[in-house]
Amino acid sequence: MPAEPGVPSVTPGLTTDGESAAVDDGASLSLVSGDAAYRLQRRIGLIPAKGLGIGRRLVILPLVAWLPMAIWAALNHRALAGAVQEPLLSHYGIHVRCLVAIPLLLVAEALAQGVMPKLIPYFVTSGLVPADCRDRFRQILSNILVLRDRWLPWIVILGVAFALSTIDSFRQDIHEVAWAASDAPAGLRLGFGGWWYLLVVRPLYVCLILTWVWRLVLLAILFWRVSGLPLSLVPTHPDRAGGLAFVERFAVVFSPVLLAHSAVLSASWAHSVIYHGVEITALRAEMVAAAILLVVVFALPYLSFVRALGHAKREAELEYGVLAGRHGRLVREKWILGKQVGEPPVLDAPELGPVADMVGLYGAVAGMRGLPLGKRGLAMIVLPVVVPMLLVAAIQVPVKDLLMKVLGTLV
């Protein structure tokens, strides 16, 4: 039965809980709301009946992670310099995990909830998905919902997080919890604060990071499947990406995630520089490798459209080349050679215009990008990764010299 005018068509999906999920052209699709982590947090009251409860979680989760550890360290004279050589205060990575990274990962959820419902429907409203492919597009969205709501990825995430913590708990040389350790006849023993960090703080942070990796995988699957549709790309589109440049706006969702992880890494490096005398030059390779890895991983979903854009550009160069050649020959024959060419429609077509406009059309096709990720999208991925690392480098390198080196590499 056809949909009524003004009412969006929907395709029923089925979640792993057996609940039906109505999928329209993407306005109801969310990377966050409805997944297993969301449902669990709603059951325990962290997420209210309406909304994501970002405000309450921004207060509760960081304090639950950081406060018990900080109170124990203060009561046992391990928070400030004195009783131990490197107190809790000196381990910047711990504080950044709790008070900076975790809130940033929650802010990313709010961004995802606001961005996704606006951008996904644009595949349809922009005309990129032809009318005869909309049912296939809705089925793709429905399948993404099913993947999002499965429990298996979350079991894997929890398993990895606690496995890492369990492995660390058997080590005797965990530098990050040296402030909570005491020498004993049986060897190094951790106090409550150290165990809290290993069994609560680190698993919580790793779970949140892996959650966003899973959401990045979901976005990559979505892009890959959509790119397999016969998209109606426009080679002369002013965005230079056939009309697909809007997908770079998805990068804003992952900017806080990149900033969070880069900040944690940089905080650990800062501790090494300040308390262990490590030279920035000794960390250069590690920083560059980490930056490249983060940028590449979070740019991977956009590679899904490379094949479609490349094919569209190659075809358009031939098609518009034929049109430009025909137009140019007729102009030459009529105005240079003085021949009678009649009144061919191609010379009077207002959408083609004079020769200069025709050249502009072909130039637009030739300048079409092979990746729907421009300077703005790259900036949203690269800057959150690089800025915390530059701050660490600024500990030893003067800011002016540092900026000049960065500008030199860019120019």
TrEMBL record:
Protein name: Uncharacterized protein
Transmembrane region(s): 58-75, 151-170, 203-226, 246-267, 287-305, 378-399
Source organism of the structure: Cupriavidus numazuensis
Superkingdom of source: Bacteria
Keywords: Membrane, Transmembrane, Transmembrane helix
